[in-house]
Input
Amino acid sequence: MTEVEKARAGEISSALKEVAQFEGIDPERLRVLVADGRVVITGYARAHSRVIGIGEGLSTKVNANIGTSPDHDDLAIELEKLDAAVDAGADALMDLSTGGDIEAIRRSILERCTVPVGTVPIYQSIVEVTRRGGEIADCTKEDFLGVVERQAKEGVDFMTIHCGLVRRLAGDVAGSRTAGVVSRGGCFLLQWIVKNGRENPYYEYYAELLEIAHQYDFALSLGDALRPGAITDSTDRPQIGELLVIGELVDRARKAGVSVFVEGPGHVPIHEIPSNMILQKKVCGAAPFYVLGPLVTDIAPGYDHITAAIGGAVAAWHGADFLCYVTPAEHLRLPSVADVRDGVISTRIAAHAGDIAKGVRGANDWDRKISRARAELDWETALDSSIDPSRAREMFDASPAGSEDLCTMCGEFCAIRGTRRSRE
Amino acid sequence: MTEVEKARAGEISSALKEVAQFEGIDPERLRVLVADGRVVITGYARAHSRVIGIGEGLSTKVNANIGTSPDHDDLAIELEKLDAAVDAGADALMDLSTGGDIEAIRRSILERCTVPVGTVPIYQSIVEVTRRGGEIADCTKEDFLGVVERQAKEGVDFMTIHCGLVRRLAGDVAGSRTAGVVSRGGCFLLQWIVKNGRENPYYEYYAELLEIAHQYDFALSLGDALRPGAITDSTDRPQIGELLVIGELVDRARKAGVSVFVEGPGHVPIHEIPSNMILQKKVCGAAPFYVLGPLVTDIAPGYDHITAAIGGAVAAWHGADFLCYVTPAEHLRLPSVADVRDGVISTRIAAHAGDIAKGVRGANDWDRKISRARAELDWETALDSSIDPSRAREMFDASPAGSEDLCTMCGEFCAIRGTRRSRE
Output
């Protein structure tokens, strides 16, 4: 039985217990949410990984992407990024490698990583076919599904598969948009569909894909191939058309006893984010929603961790369950180790701001603790309890007159000291 | 006549023309907004400064705070911060100096600064009385109002004065909050009021203050002494009680022909921001709203430019007109020159995201330009048009395989290249 089937059968599995304890919620309540598909649990494929819950009523989770590219493949650096992401508090990690020995890289990541690991199997399918001298359109059903099965066997926890990009949607999109298709997996499929004049194989053979997912009990993350890559493309007919197909695929996955969540945009102006969240929850049967950003403007390469933090916070507030980080390097280059760290922290800030807004149990206890310490001029607690104590301390200590109870912003004119004086 | 009075008299002044041209709106429409107090124009006191408009229908403006403190007073560094702020695109600058020769520092800033300059005159009043050997409570009416007049004569464009902290509110706040009073000016007044057992002098002598503001035609920024300094303190009775007083003071300023806008929070969880914006506009007669942040969580010292960008974007979307920047150094120390730059850019991102959401004319043209360039793999335009071209270029160039039409994120597997191929 898969975890979903166990939950439906009334079983409180050890994975479910671990999540209930972390979230501080009743295991029976969580069991019902998992049975209904409103929560997905993942991370139980490898014994050294945390199990996490993603979905309704739980804290918003954060994913960090790492991985090589054809121009940049160094396993050691990717493992450094892995450590940086996990140290900074990422709840999950995706390996998006497309360069070097991608199987060996993935194995190393699976061995080392203590949080759930996701992949996008089409990358490996495409890399393999091109290394055999073929082109994208030469990929066969076996190339697509074979990789999924091999990765599942290795212990990958969740896989992004762009099953919803059906052939009738493929014609629509290239001409009507500012930025066309910006999903890498989506773009591979688009080329495959257009060149072969055939249906998306992940859609055509979805029943077989679900069998593999059921057998190995990994979670299916239904990718949004047509996510907008520019704010002027957001919430357009191709994006929503694909979402409607994804909604049907959620139903089929649930019928098959497979854990499923849904991926979402992308570049979205801030005022459209609430509608996008409501729409996904409605047409996808309240399946967990995993969003990339959203980035609320296109103007800030070098600062897209900030444009994504703005969008991610608003998305989480309005129901997004899982935020994929965006680093300062987005749109410019592969992230460095420092970029990974910045990306995780800024996305965690967004997730936490959303958790406060959506009333996640105990979320603002953290804020209260830090603010109380500030009000008591207890710098040790205020710094040590912050989201990145080493950064906070480094900045505080760099202050030319930094002392234990004085910051250079106000010095003797500190409002908190003044308030304490007036209270006394 | 003040600028407000000119607008009411039907005059299209040169300052008003400058703003209308910058915003791309009809001068007559702008004149009506200024006459009604829905827009404030400022920056006309010094010929070398830009004039800016703040308020309804205009792009959201960004302020940067600089200034010395008792533990950190170096004019050269403050002038470097000034240059960094203006170069990074700040629309206004506040000098909050409390250390060193604050009059000389302000004069240097006023001479050099090409955007409107604001101050918080109570700082100078308090510094002067303490240097004379007195304490805060010894400040006289003449100490408070005399500084306002001297600063006005020098060409300060707008002044933050905490007129709304009336005596009956002062008792309420210290005990009921996690973080008490965190406004520095507010805290000085609180101590003055409590120690002397008298009414806030800026409130008691508000008529005389308005006479000075009318004579020198500077804009009054009604400070929120009781802004929340922790998210658990937000939207509480002291904050809203002060806002109601401020609403009355807006009416009195308008009757006196004085330009007036209103300052707001502070630390506010994201879901309370829309209500805070609606409330201010309603009870303050649609006066422009100038917010500090808001910071949507307390947990992230070292990253408060990000917590404030999240809050600022949501605030601007829901009607805030003027965002005061927050730097990464907030809560830790005075900002460095680099912190100033980061603070301005992240606040400009928030302002722009808000402008797109509130439909400011032409706001998303900028996004469209960059996204079109991206889709055409025109790196030159995409980088040069971005909010911080030097940062974007530096990150792009640092890419190990950076070439003119390839980024290391995807390399040969670039989705944009693939989309172009499938289109062809």
Q: What stands out?
A: Residues 378-423 of chain B form one domain.
